[in-house]
Amino acid sequence: RTANIYEPDLAPESYDISYSRWLLLHLNNPVEAMRKIREALKPGGLMVCEEADLSAIYTEPPTDGYHAYRDLAFVLGDLIKVDYAGGRHLHLWAREAGFEILHVDAYQPHYVTGPYKNFWSWTFHESAPSAIKTGLLSEARWTQMAQDMRAADEDPHVLVAHARTGQLIARKPL
Fold it and tell me: How far apart are CA 121 and CA 148, in angstroms?
């Protein structure tokens, strides 16, 4: 089933818990989405969210490809009116949507090797056509950035820090 979070067609006060991961940062109005979640929760129901904060992506030593990707994501986010630093704002959004905050935390994976180190270069590869289409990125710059990111992924001396993921547990008031 597919649905629109702003018009979810869910029975009011019928769910005990809601869970979302890396959803809200892709929305133009995450607070309104949280309000819709609150409407579907029973009194005392829990909303559990995990959202990325792309501003925390970096490499050590620094690499042009990864840092340019991070910066490009925020330019694109401004253009399409989404907040790619949403993970750091979860608690604020939830309060504004009428929730009680029970717990806030964050984690940030770091890799020097392994199958997950290249997550962001893979993501860049998949999302670059949109940036090229909007004119934010040329094909030549895309190729340069992609090569730089792949080189960082393959080098065990380069640490890749993924997005920090904010975690939130909030309750609908009784």
Answer: 9
